[in-house]
Amino acid sequence: MKKGKVAAVGMLSLAMLMGTPALNVLAAEPTAVVQPQGETLTRGEFFKMLDQAIDLPKAEEKRTYKDVPQGSELADIVNKLQTVGALRDSNDGTVRPESELKAGEAIALISGVLGIPDHPVPGGASPLDSKHWASNIAGWMKSAKVDYNWNDLDRSVTKQEAQALVKQLLSTSSDATKLLEESQKAQQNVKSFRLKGDTSFSMVLKQDALDQLSADERKTFDEMAKKGLSMKMEGSYVMPDSMYTKSHMKMPDFGQGESMGDMEIEQYIIGKDMYMKMPAFAPTDSENPSGWVKMKDAFPLDMKAMMEQQLSGIPPQLEKKLFYRSAGEGQLSFQGRIDKLSELASMMNGMQGMEDMTAALEEAEKSIGAIYIQGVMNLDPKTKLPVDSSMQFVISFNEKAGNAEEMPFKQMVMAQDVKYSDYNDNVKIELPEAAKQAKEVSAETATAKQVSKQ
User: Fold this and answer.
1) Which of 31, 110, 204, 410 lies at a C-alpha separation of 20 to 30 Å from 178?
2) Which residues form the signal peptide (predicted)?
3) How much is the mean pLDDT over the chain?
């Protein structure tokens, strides 16, 4: 299978994993913040403030610093901050914990612990000049509806300002919690709905891995990084056990001398059975010219139970990773990080069929590292149901992954816009005649045939 196609298929799979819309919005509890006095704050004090506000993975490598006591609480915190990229390595081996905190340092550190990438936000604009060191941070924050004073980033920050900033960006506000609860209550009565969405993909290349490829392969990935990919999706959902999705991925010419062609996938879930049509990958089969295949019991999850589980709120282990704010008039914005794909499975713990899903996510963790998520969702002011959402996902790939050389990029950025409609409005899902006559195969057989075709 050509590496370009492998990348495209991987992106499509991640789009389905990250972007498959659920009715609920994940809620977290607001973090209590003590009102401080107006004195200035040191960098070290702010490091500790961040550590209390957001859960970060433990550092596997223990580093030492000239100005941090070895084995101290602060040393552990600094190690975590450097592990997630919030603190850069210094040339002199210091982190200046006793220095006064500056406004630019504060927003950069918060950006780092959230996982905001150091490249432009897709489809957005920064309030700062493109040459400014904080231009990308400002662009991502603006897209997430963050109100911040970008003037004079060299000014000292008081303890009161720092705690207010942490409360704003690293906790879920009480008004957001109220709106989330109202929306979750409204969603309990949803029996059906439709959606339409647009998704775009872009990549940040990994130069050392790129250098190991042939000239043609390097050209392909260079073009892929420049042009990106796009996908349109539509879907219908009927509780408790019916779903229809159709996605079309636009595949530009990546400089291979021939078009890779577009990919279209049509899929039905009826009960536990999955019906799928993938013309771009389907082998020629005289006995099955329609290309439809049926995979019996391929969708073991109970959709109703899945929605009920999600409506129960966010699992405790993610409460200090995903944060929501109310932007007024029924608008919610959110930012957060997922350090392991298997944490996503925790949202549906105890459900039938989750064992295989969890195992698959744990296997994918060998290649995929942290995921940064941000977005904005608009709720109908009367019904409190989602109207539309705009989300961005930044998927980072592990440097030491066993198959890292297969995918020569370190990050993939996915931007997704979705509109929801027709709640409880006589939505019907019916199999087409061709799908009713689909050839029955196992999920493993279908995947193998798709790969062998390429």
Assistant:
1) 110
2) 1-27
3) 81
